[in-house]
Amino acid sequence: MSQARVQPQTVPIRPSQLPDAAAGNDSHDAAVSARSTLPGGEDEELIKLRRELSAIELLQGLGDELMHMLLVSCPIRELGVGDVLLHAGQTNDQIFVILRGALQVFLADSYDKPVATLRAGDSVGELSVLDKKPASASVTAQEPTRLLCIDESMFWHIVHASHGFAVRLIIKLSERLRANNNTVQVNRALTAHFEQVALSDALTGVHSRRWIQDTMPRLCERHRFDNQPLSIAVVDIDYFKRINDKYGHQTGDLVLCEVAKTMRKGLRPTDFIARYGGEEFVLIFPRTPLAGAAIAAERQREAVRATALKTTEGDDMPQTTVSIGLAELQPGQTADMLIHTADLALYRAKNKGRNCVEL
């Protein structure tokens, strides 16, 4: 007598056909019914399925009775590439054990980059069953995937009947949580790194213009609140365009780096230096009145003038000088207004012949 062949699979669900938690149950029930009423014991299909389930670590050691219940009660679901298993926000009362293939997990309906990839032996959906909340992520098939679908009642039956199953599930959930924590830590480290890159000038290593834009308003407010003086200097390398034109941009970059290094050496630990753009730098002197800033700026001007610079080929260069404009924070001034005031002083220094400090 020929035996019936069972093909327990559901219709694949595409992203344009987001699944309902109960979708496909009728076909599953038909497949399960066919399995449970097979004459003459297990047929070849069920024997293959038993071997398939026995190879999954999570399901090992269940015993014949529980394994038989899985065989006859839990449907098999087949997904094609790109099929959606779960959609973020969808209610779900099933646990899906991956028998073959791979699933990708995406957060907040973003299909740009998966946050996790699950493979044979992994499970998904258990959190929805445990906390009775909708799925927090979308899950799609990265490749053709075969799943064992365990509904809520069967899941709790296995948990109560098999201590080993419960322990293995807890271990897998702990591993996943640890992996998520590691991902969060890596993302935080990357965020901090990129923020640092954005706030630093790539060429000279000093603070960037963005750093000035982020920090200066807070500095102004703090000094105004504490009733303390705050002075700044806008520094411009004299005739920098001639340096680029005569010696090339590589030598020009070298000059920028050397001038930045020289000025940074001359600052107090509480002072700041930032590249404002092109050949311009901003020096910030916290808790310093204009007279004190003028003394510090004059020292900086002299230090740059005394620095011996060379071209990228090692040839001596003519003396490099800077012009400096100073300003002190006044009542009612914003950070932009303070920088503008220092800029006007810088223009006066240039008009006086450069290589000088102007208040």
Task: Give a short synopsis of this structure.
The protein is an alpha+beta fold and 359 residues long. It has 11 helices and 13 strands.
Strand order of the main beta sheet, please?
Answer: 10-11-9-12-13
Helix content: 40-55%
Question: What structural class should be given to the helix and strand makeup?
Answer: alpha+beta
| Span between termini | 106 Å
Give the helices and strands as they follow along the chain: HHHEEEEEEHEEHHHEHHEEHEHE
Per CATH, the superfamily of the largest domain is Jelly Rolls
What CATH architecture label of the largest domain applies?
Sandwich
Summary tags:
359 residues; alpha+beta; Jelly Rolls; Alpha-Beta Plaits; 2 domains; five-stranded mixed sheet; four-stranded antiparallel sheet; 11 helices; disordered N terminus
List the SSEs and their pairings.
Elements: H1 25-36, H2 44-54, H3 64-73, E1 76-79, E2 84-86, E3 94-100, E4 102-107, E5 116-119, E6 123-124, H4 126-131, E7 137-141, E8 145-151, H5 152-161, H6 163-199, H7 209-226, E9 230-237, H8 240-247, H9 249-265, E10 272-277, E11 280-286, H10 290-305, E12 322-328, H11 335-351, E13 357-358
Parallel strand pairs: 12-13
Antiparallel strand pairs: 1-8, 2-7, 3-6, 3-8, 4-5, 4-7, 9-11, 9-12, 10-11
Would you give an account of this structure?
By secondary structure, this protein is α+β, with helices and mostly antiparallel strands. The protein has 2 domains: 25-186, Jelly Rolls, CATH 2.60.120.10; 209-358, Alpha-Beta Plaits (2-Layer Sandwich). The protein is built from 11 helices and 13 strands. It has a 5-stranded mixed β-sheet, with helices on both faces. Strands 1-8-3-6 form a 4-stranded antiparallel β-sheet. Strand 10 (272-277) and strand 11 form a beta hairpin. Mean pLDDT is 83; it is low at 1-40.
